[in-house]
Amino acid sequence: MSLPSTPAATDPAPRRARGRPRKTADERDDGNRRQALLREAARLFRQHGFAATSTRDIATAAGMQSGSPFYHFDSKEALLAAVMQEGMERALQRQQAAIAASVEERAPEPSDCLRVLVRSHLDVILGPDSDFIPVMLYEWRSLAEAQRSEVNRLKDAYEGTWVPVLRALHDSGELRGDPSLARLMLFGALNWSVQWFDPARRASLDDLADTALQLFLKDPA
Amino acid sequence: MSLPSTPAATDPAPRRARGRPRKTADERDDGNRRQALLREAARLFRQHGFAATSTRDIATAAGMQSGSPFYHFDSKEALLAAVMQEGMERALQRQQAAIAASVEERAPEPSDCLRVLVRSHLDVILGPDSDFIPVMLYEWRSLAEAQRSEVNRLKDAYEGTWVPVLRALHDSGELRGDPSLARLMLFGALNWSVQWFDPARRASLDDLADTALQLFLKDPA
DNA sequence: CCTACCGATCGGTAGG
DNA sequence: CCTACCGATCGGTAGG
């Protein structure tokens, strides 16, 4: 419509995007470098812990010089906060997508909902690119007080999804014990797998989900 | 019998223990200092993590100068290993004592045995002087390979106690799912409480044990 | 167990 | 994003 094909033969130097001062390639690269730092930080924080990982280690892993991470992040703590935030955002997305997919198929039973949540959670903590959430789970004390609230917001949303499902299972008698304590213990059972799960051996994530449900759920009345 | 009361009046300086070069008081004191270091190390390692705790922090907490911990321990890593070993020895003692006490009362059902193990475990990780085992649970990666085997021996003994109990419950139908996976998930549910349990609020350790059993056990057939 | 100290490493910055 | 650097801290040691 309002885009006449005025032949710009008079314009010798063709410009790509009007508002930006050229160097679109550099900008995409900047994003790549930041993402590389996040990814390597998550991997190293998970493997060795926050305090035992130096910003130099992270820089080297991302192919940078020792001072360069501070061009992208204000401090080592800000890098940790970014890892946790990124992890929670991805986890929340994956959780919501899994729920949406299961609702689309049919009206799910509460136990089906729990299976979806458990399976999605196992994927978040043990699947590919799963370094971010374990860092959040096991390095929480290293996060400065000031930066906890934002991550807590996402964490509350993620955990809140479980509440109505667990309550429904409690009401139907399939889950015994206080639902709030049950949620904490279920999370414990699942999150602990970060310490022992070996993707090469033992069970698959599907097997883990099956066992968890067998363990925690009673037969429906 | 062969201990004639020869009056040692000819001996002007009375000696306490023949083999040791006097200073029994100092020796007991040495043990106290070492114990103080262990206790403060466990507390600080639990609170801030191994890597984030300096040997100076530990020395100060124990009322010593910065170099003094190395009179008692070869290295910071040796101090960590000693904390874990001390913790596992205490845990194993408490576990065996709890079992012995429960067997004395009556021939216990498998579910009673599990209750005893769960309650004793909660005491080990959440009760008084419970800094040692959480350090082992959450700082394992900080322990040097060479020092893992000794702690692993104790850990295997502690965990081995659970195996026949869980198998019996599985055979009676009270516990569903693979017993070996069940043990890992049960440990996860309990160990995770280190992250959220607040002795001032919420439930008591007895309540926690009750909920865990309600959650994991089916009604006996 | 203290005093005094060392070499190494760390998070972070100025200036380009 | 790199170069070059700083002040602080750390684990550990010699000598008493």
Fold and architecture overview:
The structure is a homodimer of 221-residue chains. With 221 residues, chain A is mainly α. Chain A has 2 domains: 24-73, Orthogonal Bundle (Arc Repressor Mutant, subunit A); 76-216, Tetracycline Repressor, domain 2. Chain A is 64% helix and 0% strand. The first copy, chain A, is built from 11 helices and no strands. The first copy, chain A, has helices at 24-48, 55-61, 69-72, 76-105, 110-126, 132-138, 148-160, 162-171, 179-191, 193-196, 205-216. In chain A, helix 1 (24-48) crosses helix 6 and helix 5 (110-126) packs across helix 8. The A-B interface holds A 47-52, 138, 140-142, 175-178, 181-182, 184-193, 195-196, 203, 208, 210-212, 214-216, 218-219 and B 47-52, 138, 140-142, 175-178, 181-182, 184-193, 195-196, 203, 208, 210-212, 214-216, 218-219. Chain A binds a DNA duplex (16 and 16 nucleotides) through residues 30, 33, 54-56, 64-68, 70-72, 75-76.
